[in-house]
Every structure is written in structure tokens, then in C-alpha cells.
Specification:
heterodimer; A: alpha+beta; eight-stranded antiparallel β-sheet; 28% helix; B: mainly alpha; Arc Repressor Mutant, subunit A; 5 helices; 66% helix; 11% strand; elongated
């Protein structure tokens, strides 16, 4: 599993985050994982968060309105509006932060996402470009995710402790 | 207005200045020679870089030299690493899910 590509870079000149990842699965499966809410909700949120999709109509002009839910019940809402869908190849969307009633939070950045899927010898390659207006917007998005990152670190520690006790 | 490292690197001229002075401390005039903009414009960029604490000034005789605060640049790495980790976890979860789905299909 470790020989699968994972590349993560920030391009300061275009205010973009570039992510490339390979998966040991056929393209149709990876495509479903990004486009079907019952699969998306099983992996989208980094543990211990849970992804809860409230509305999803995967079509151009459609949207996914979802929350990241904390174990304590705190919810962070967001919406992704699909602007282009080329089946099994390409998705473009606009991602924004919202409140629980789907009102977009204008103080937080909206970013443009482009996802590209391709398959070679049973390995699916996914490339994601997340374009923002400014680098500071990327920073804000990361700050929103910082709590996630921090909790994850604690989680890893939790997993590590039993092995250290042996 | 809030000044931070991300503002510093948000501008192409400032990124070019960072690259220039990473190699050696330079005077504002020497820096300005590398750009087609005015001396004033370069001075403004240097001021922002200084406010972001990404460059430091040093007086040598009558001249002021600008050099890079390397440690400050490391903040960018740390910041990117946090986000990278979130995606890494997310994708590892997807790996597990994909292999479960594949097994169930068989």
C-alpha cells in the first residue's frame, strides 16, 4: 500500500493546493467514493469527526450540503456546488462554509476545486487542485482544519500507547 | 492590518526578493536593480517583508542590508504539514473502505 503515490504541494503563485494520490482500486469504485453520499460519509471526515451529508444531488448545478460532526456533537457545515461533471473523469465544484441553514459564511473563503480521475493497470490516480483567491484564504481553511489535525495527532498517540506498553 | 508570513509570500515580487536575499544580504538599491519597478515599489515590498518579520535589516556604515529570517520560512512548512496530515488520514480511510468494498464484491 505504501508504494502508492501521495503528493501534496502548495503553489504560491496560483494560490492553489495540489494533491495527487493513487488508489489500489478501479476507477469506477473511486468515482463512487466521491460521488455517492453513503460512501463519502464513511471516509470524508478525518476521525474522530463524522461526515454527515444532509442533501446531495450529484449533477451540474446540484450540490452537497454536509456537516463535519465532532464527537461532542459540534457541527461545522459546508456546501459544495457542482459546476462541471464529466463522468468518471472530471468534477469541478465551489466549496464554501455555511451555517446549519445553508447560509454561506461570506467571511470565510470559497474555493474552486477540480478533481481529475484516471486509471492505469487497476490503479486509479486522483489529482485535486484547490484554487483560492489569496494565500491567506488557504491559511484560513487550514486553521479551520487545525482542530482536526490536532485531534488526529491525539488519536495517533492513543493508538501508539498500547504498543508502547507491551 | 494584520501582517503575517502568508501575506509576505502572496506577492510575486516579494517571493523574488526572498529568493534573492536568501543567498546574501543586499542593500535596497542592489535588490531594486533586479526588478523593472521603481525603487519606491521595492522599498514598499521590503517594508511589508520586514513587518512580516521575514527579513531583518542590518546597518553597515551608511548602508542598510536586508537578509532573510530563515526560521520564519519554516513556519510555512509547518503550516502546510498540518493540512497534508488531514488529507493523508482522509485518504487512508478511503484506502480501507475501498479494500472492504472490493472484498465484498468478490
Amino acid at each position: 500500500m505504501n508504494n502508492l503515490l501521495f503528493d501534496f504541494t502548495v503553489d504560491e503563485s496560483t494560490n492553489s493546493i495540489l494533491i495527487t494520490r493513487e488508489f489500489d482500486a478501479e476507477l469506477s469504485l473511486v468515482w463512487d467514493a466521491f460521488t455517492k453520499q453513503e460512501i463519502l460519509d464513511q471516509w470524508w471526515a478525518p476521525k474522530p469527526l463524522v461526515s454527515k451529508t444532509k442533501v446531495m444531488n450529484f449533477e451540474v448545478g446540484g450540490r452537497r450540503f454536509y456537516a463535519m460532526v465532532w464527537p461532542e456533537g459540534q457541527e461545522y457545515w459546508g456546501v459544495e456546488k457542482y459546476t462541471l461533471i464529466d463522468p468518471q473523469t472530471n468534477i469541478k465544484l465551489l466549496a464554501s462554509f455555511t451555517d446549519k441553514d445553508e447560509n454561506i459564511n461570506a467571511e470565510l473563503p470559497t474555493s474552486e476545486w477540480e478533481l481529475n480521475f484516471s486509471e492505469q493497470n487497476g490503479i486509479t490516480k486522483l489529482s485535486i487542485v484547490i484554487k483560492n483567491k489569496t494565500l491567506t484564504d488557504i491559511e484560513t481553511i487550514i486553521q479551520m482544519g487545525f482542530k482536526e489535525g490536532f485531534t488526529m495527532t491525539l488519536n495517533e498517540l492513543e493508538n501508539l500507547l498500547p504498543t508502547l506498553n507491551k | 492590518m494584520r501582517r503575517d508570513i502568508f501575506q509576505a509570500i502572496a506577492d510575486p515580487t516579494r517571493r523574488a526578493i526572498i529568493v534573492l536575499i536568501a543567498l546574501q544580504a543586499m542593500t535596497p538599491n542592489a535588490i531594486a536593480e533586479n526588478f523593472n519597478t521603481t525603487r519606491q515599489a521595492v522599498s514598499k515590498h521590503l517594508r511589508i517583508l520586514t513587518e512580516c518579520e521575514l527579513v531583518k535589516q542590518e546597518q553597515k556604515g551608511r548602508k542598510i542590508y536586508y537578509s532573510l529570517e530563515i526560521d520564519k520560512m519554516k513556519e510555512i512548512d509547518k503550516w502546510i504539514e498540518q493540512f497534508r496530515k488531514i488529507w493523508e488520514t482522509r485518504f487512508n480511510q478511503l484506502d480501507n473502505l475501498l479494500s472492504t468494498i472490493k472484498k465484498n464484491k468478490r
